[in-house]
Prior knowledge:
Elements: H1 9-15, H2 38-55, H3 65-107, H4 109-115
Amino acid sequence: KKSMTDLLPLDLGKCFHRFSIPDVEEGFDNIRYEWANQEASKEYLSSWVLKRKATQRIEDIQPGKFFREKSTEWQKASLEFKKKQMEWKKVIDQLQEWKSAGKAKGSDPKKAEDDKPTDIDPDEL
């Protein structure tokens, strides 16, 4: 047999941050603390709420203004990084192309002789 909780996890996630210890200022005539005194009860509830904030799934959370601004900045920076990366890849590809063209040019012996500088003796002129 499964035990049934008082609140479903979905409902608990929506309202646990508003839980509080009753106070005389709220209109209660008499408040009795069965397990601990008022301060210990407040401390326990505070630690319980903080633990739930760290572990409870919040279904209806929405990003705030700060997050949206930072997200937009990151997307712009990411695009700039990608552009610079693509430009660098183009430079590398061009260098590889020149290198392979230079190797192909150097492998032809006839062309190597034609490109060789001619030795001219200035005294013979």
